[in-house]
């Protein structure tokens, strides 16, 4: 940009920190401010010690919504928010990726770090990263973004060019401790707020009639809270698998590695726990090595399609009776309550797909104490997909002075976030102001789900667009530069699940 830009970054997790660092390096005269609602850097990796209390309510069409409290919602107000949201991680969590894939380029973990790090080790890594690169002075902790919109009189976006208007974005901020509010203006905004806040609960017919407990993995702390119960876990990715495994350990300890729980096998006086895992596709446990016996404690079922009383009904007609709790390990929706649908540019060009509500109104069928007493806007209830974004999930196509880092699911988050931040910083530094056309190609709905090796192919494509993705002919082992993704990274990514099973036993 021709003059020093004011850059606002929402979130001081891995995406926000690396964005601040990349912009700081590429555009040294930029005025950078990072807004973080928590009182420490690290984002979702801040476990905290606040009990994860929660409520689940149903809207008029039987869709379940989960939050720590619904008391912060009010009729007609669209800046839906919680107090500082609890982290989605839990005390026993170990990453499912090795240290090389859970770090930024040229910033290795300490030698003492576990091969598959704990959440505490990841948090310490991010704290060191922020301190090493002088990022802490750029961060306003305990600050919530309440509202983000175009400032009055914003000029229309000229296709293909980075908007140069000063003060293009108006941001309303709130100090979470004093509740004082302020309005500030910025030229460029990077949304690095993550996607582990709004719990996603898929629609299940008559779920509101289930007489047991409903639970989402966002509020998970320990398998002990389910000891002695009959549990159905819906979902089989990271959280669904981890919770099913830990509940199985209540009855049978792992043969390899350590369990934080006393098991029924070693302590016969403890109550037995039943664990059923529901998934849409058949299980793909690739246990070519000896199959662990605790895995036999997990009963496998198909997709859940309904409930009645304490019974759970599956798509194949099977019914399990006497179920005490349904646990949803079903991920998260994208929610940006600060992007109010009555404000521009969101009013004209939303990032949320149009709602296709085809279910009937079942309000009269829902018990009064389970009803959501008002209608949530799309920006608050969220969506599993986003639209109006560029192919690489970087830029808001209606105004690329608004960018995203870390949107994608089921990827290697550190490397991809760093690459996205690297490209965004390059665009900010452009003198000609024209953005490489490949970076503004339109995305398509559901493009937030990249799988291996798509994320690395997309990363290479982004770097090639800014002339930094050429083949690195003198490739060194365990060195990851800004060139095309090295072969050792691809091999490590492909073998990560097997490597973890061999090392940890799960």
The overall number of domains is 2
CATH superfamily of the largest domain: FAD/NAD(P)-binding domain
> Taking strands numbered 1, 2, ... along the chain, how are they ordered across the largest sheet?
5-2-1-9-20
CATH class placement of the largest domain: Alpha Beta
SSE order:
EHEEEHEEEEEEEEHEEEEEEEHEHHH
Helix and strand content put the structural class at: alpha/beta
Number of helices: 7
Strand share of the residues? 15-25%
Name given to the CATH architecture of the largest domain:
3-Layer(bba) Sandwich
Outline the low-pLDDT stretches: 73-81
Helix content: 10-25%
**Strand count:** 20
Distance between the termini: 50 Å
What does this structure look like?
There is one protein chain. The chain is α/β, with parallel strands linked by helices and 506 residues long. The protein folds into two domains: 6-198 and 334-432, 3-Layer(bba) Sandwich (FAD/NAD(P)-binding domain); 207-328, FAD/NAD(P)-binding domain, CATH 3.50.50.60. 18% of the residues lie in helices and 17% in strands. It is built from seven helices and 20 strands. It has helices at residues 14-26, 119-132, 238-249, 378-381, 413-429, 454-465, 487-504; strands at 6-10, 31-35, 55-58, 64-67, 139-140, 143-150, 169-175, 181-186, 188-191, 198-199, 213-216, 230-234, 274-278, 298-301, 304-308, 311-314, 319-320, 325-328, 332-333, 402-404. The strands form six sheets. Strands 5-2-1-9-20 form a five-stranded parallel beta sheet, with helices on one face. β15 and β16 form a beta hairpin. The longest helix has 18 residues, at 487-504. The N and C termini lie far apart (50 Å). Mean pLDDT is 86; it is low at 73-81. This is FAD/NAD(P)-binding domain-containing protein. Belongs to the FMO family. Pfam families: FMO-like, NAD_binding_8. Keywords: FAD, Flavoprotein, Oxidoreductase. GO terms for molecular function: flavin adenine dinucleotide binding; N,N-dimethylaniline monooxygenase activity; NADP binding.
């Amino acid at each position: 940009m021709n003059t020093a830009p004011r850059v606002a970054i929402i979130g001081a997790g891995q995406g926000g920190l690396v964005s601040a660092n990349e912009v700081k390096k590429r555009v040294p005269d930029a005025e950078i401010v990072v807004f973080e609602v928590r009182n420490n850097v690290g984002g979702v990796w801040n476990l905290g010690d606040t009990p994860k209390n929660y409520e689940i309510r149903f809207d008029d069409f039987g869709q379940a919504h989960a939050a720590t409290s619904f008391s912060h919602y009010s009729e007609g107000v669209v800046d839906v928010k919680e107090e500082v949201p609890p982290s989605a991680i839990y005390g026993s969590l170990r990453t499912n990726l090795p240290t090389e894939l859970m770090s930024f380029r040229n910033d290795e973990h300490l030698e003492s770090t576990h091969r598959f790090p704990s959440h505490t080790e990841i948090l310490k890594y991010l704290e060191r990263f922020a301190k090493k690169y002088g990022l802490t002075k750029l961060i306003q902790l305990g600050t919530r973004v309440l509202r983000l919109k175009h400032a009055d009189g914003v000029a229309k976006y000229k296709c293909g060019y980075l908007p140069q208007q000063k003060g293009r974005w108006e941001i309303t901020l709130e100090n979470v401790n004093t509740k004082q509010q302020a309005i500030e203006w910025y030229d460029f905004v990077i949304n690095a707020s993550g996607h582990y806040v709004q719990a996603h609960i898929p629609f299940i017919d008559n779920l509101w009639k289930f007489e047991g407990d409903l639970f989402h993995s966002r509020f998970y702390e320990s398998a002990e809270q389910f000891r002695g119960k009959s549990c159905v876990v819906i979902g089989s990715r990271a959280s669904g698998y981890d919770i099913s495994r830990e509940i199985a350990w209540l009855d049978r300890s792992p043969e390899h590695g350590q369990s934080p729980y006393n098991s029924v096998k070693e302590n016969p006086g403890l109550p037995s726990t039943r664990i059923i895992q529901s998934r849409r596709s058949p299980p793909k446990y690739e246990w070519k090595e000896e199959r662990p016996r605790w895995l036999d404690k997990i009963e496998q079922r198909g997709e859940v399609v309904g409930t009645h009383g304490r019974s759970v009904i599956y798509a194949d007609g099977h019914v399990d009776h006497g179920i005490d709790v349904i646990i949803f390990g079903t991920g998260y929706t994208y929610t940006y309550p600060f992007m109010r649908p009555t404000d521009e540019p969101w009013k004209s060009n939303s990032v949320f797909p149009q709602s296709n509500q085809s279910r009937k109104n079942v309000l009269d069928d829902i018990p009064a104490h389970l009803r959501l007493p008002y209608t949530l806007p799309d920006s608050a209830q969220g969506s599993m997909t986003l639209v109006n974004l560029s192919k690489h999930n970087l830029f808001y196509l209606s105004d690329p002075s608004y960018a995203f880092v870390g949107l994608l699911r089921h990827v290697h988050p550190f490397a991809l976030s760093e690459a996205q931040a690297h490209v965004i910083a390059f665009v900010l530094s452009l003198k000609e102001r024209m953005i490489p056309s490949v970076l503004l190609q339109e995305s398509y709905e559901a493009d937030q789900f990249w799988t291996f090796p798509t994320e690395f192919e997309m990363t290479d494509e982004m770097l090639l667009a800014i002339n930094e993705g050429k083949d690195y002919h003198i490739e060194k082992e365990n060195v990851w530069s800004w060139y095309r993704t090295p072969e050792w990274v691809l091999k490590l990514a492909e073998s990560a699940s097997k490597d973890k099973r061999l090392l940890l036993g799960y």
